[in-house]
Structure formats: C-alpha cells, structure tokens
Amino acid sequence: MKKQLIMEKALELFAKQGFEATSIQQITEHCGISKGAFYLSFKSKEELILALIDRFAKLTLSGTDYLVKNTEKETLIFEFYQTMFDLFQKHTDFAKVLLKEQMQPFNEKFMEKMYSYEKSFEQIILTMVERVYGEEVKESKYDLIYCIKGLLNTYTNYLLFCNAPVDLKLLAQSLVEKTNILAKYTTIPFLSREITRTFPANEKTSKEQILSVIEEKIEEMEELIEKESLVLLKQHLLEPTFSPAIVKGLLENIRNHPHCEWISYLLRKYYGF
To answer: In this structure, are 135 and 224 located in the same domain?
Structure first.
C-alpha cells in the first residue's frame, strides 16, 4: 500500500512540476515518509516514473480488451472511442507531463515492454475490427488498425491541450462515422497480414509469470471476495479443475478491483476468453 501511496503522491507533483524538476526529497515530504521508505519501494525516481507509465498502459489494455470482447458489435466502435477518451481525460495531468517529457531517455528493457503493450493494443483493435466489419474489411483491416490508432492519437492530443469544454459523445460519434467510411470505401490497402508478421510479435505471458503476479497481489489484498477469487484462480492455474464458466465468474469477481485488472487481462488472454 505504501508503494501505491508513493505513486499517487508523486503523480501529483509530476503533474505540477514535471519529472526533472521533482526530487525524491519532495516526493517523500509530500508522502510523509522517509527516504529509506521510498527506496524500499523504488530503487530510483526513474523506476518510479516507469512504474507509473507501466500502470497506465496496463489499465488501458485491460479495460479495452474486456470492452471489445463483451460489448454488442452494433455499439462497439462508439464505446471504444468514448472509453479511450474518458480514460485519457481522467488522467489528463499525467498524459500532459508524459507528452512534454517523452523524449527523455528510457532504458532498452522499458522500450521493449512498451513495444509489447503497443502490439497487444493493436491486437485488441484487430479483434474489434473483425467483430464489427467481418469480411467487409478482409483486405484492409490492417490499414484500418493504424487509421484508428492515428485518429486516437490526433484527437487525444487535441483533448489534452484544449481548454474549452469538449463533448466526448459527439467526438466519439464523429470518429465512428470516419471509421465506418474508411472501412467501407478503402480500396487500396497498404498493409497486409504478411507485412505485419515481419514485425516482432509481443511475447505471450507464461503461466509462471502470471502465478508470480497473482502471488504478489494475494499478499497485498484485504478484500475477502477478491482475495478468495485470486486464491482459487491460482489453484486452477496450477491444477485445472474448474469449468470455463466458473473461471469466468472468478475473473468477473476481480475485474473491477484496481489492483486486479491486469491479472484479469492476463488470465483472459491465457484462457482465450
């Protein structure tokens, strides 16, 4: 819980001052803890920053993956855009400072991790496109993925730095119209399945890695239902005994808990839900 406190309080300072201008001393004073307590959670300020970005990426993936697989296809594109803009608007301060300081050097391991998240996000969009448009976009669906990402990036930048009130429902409706036009009228696709296969694929999370995450969260959890669900999911991962319906029910128990969204996402991918 102390790690969570540090992340939340540091984010407040980063949003006001930026990464570079915020010292560990300021963070510990803002948290009301010692420097020793800080270093028990994070080895450096850089590790803290990467943990914040990592959390934001995981929140985005887990939320959109569930949405794409559990929303009626007639409203899916609209819900997707609105959910993405709601998410970015909710985290506007962090997104602004991240954009301003995105050129600071990050280590290679982190860049590989972020690339993996990016490829996972593209897979989620591909699932959405195939569900909504089917054979209509058989030849152009890979181009459509990048068009959707481009629309998201462009309008997200606008939202971040627009001081006037924005009607997110109208924005989502507008982008649904644009996406439908691209899906219907694109006749000269550039990207193909073969081309996209030349890009390095994101690594699949192993059972051992998922178990490690679950065990860490079980130690942190206090809520009885969520903790018991995690214990049962761990047991099933080690020795499968439950039906798919029971596993889905257990995942539903933990899905909305802020510390379990990523575990829920990893397990849904692992079981193919």
So the answer is: no
Residue recorded with tokens 């962090």:
94
Element (H, E) at 31: helix 24-31
Instruction: Please give the helix or strand (H or E) that residue 243 lies within, else none.
Output: none
Predicted confidence (pLDDT) at residue 74 exceeds the cutoff of 90 = yes
Residues 145 and 260 in one domain: no
Contact call for residues 144 and 129 (beta carbons, < 8 A): yes
**Distance in angstroms (rounded) separating the CA atoms of residues 141 and 186:** 10
DSSP state of 20: T
Residue 223 has pLDDT above 60, yes or no: yes
For 124-162, write each residue's pLDDT tens digit: 999 999 999 999 999 999 999 999 999 998 998 888 777
Q: Please report, for the domain that includes residue 37, its CATH number.
A: 1.10.10.60
81 & 186 share domain: yes
Per the structure, how many domains does the chain have? 3
> How many CB atoms within 10 Å of residue 219?
8
If DSSP codes are grouped into helix, strand and coil, which group holds residue 117? helix
Going by pLDDT thresholds of 50, 70 and 90, the confidence category of residue 109 is low
Domain span at residue 248? 207-271
The answer to the question of residue 202 being in a domain is no
Q: Is the pLDDT of residue 4 over 90?
A: no
